[in-house]
Amino acid sequence: MNIALLTIGDELCIGQIINTNASWIADRCTQIGAFITCHSTIKDNPLDIICELDRLRINNAMIIITGGLGPTHDDSTKATLCSYFHDTLIEHQDTLQFLQERYISRNIFFSERNREQAFVPSSCTVLKNPRGTAPGLLFAQTDCIFIALPGVPAEMKGIMQEYVLPIIQDRFLEENTTKPFYRTLITKGIPESTLADLIGNPSEFLAIQESLAFLPSFQGVRLRLGVYHHNAESAIQRLDVLEQILMNKAGTYIYAKNQENLLSKTTENLIILKKTLSVVESCTGGKLSSLCTDLPGSSVFFKGGFITYSNELKEQLVHVRHETLLEFGAVSEQTAIEMASGGREILHTDYCISITGIAGPGGGSDEKPVGLVWIGLSSNNRTFARKHIFGTDRDMNRERSVYAALSILYDELHHI
Question: Which of 160, 282, 317, 365 is the most buried (most CB within 10 A)?
Answer without folding.
Answer: 282
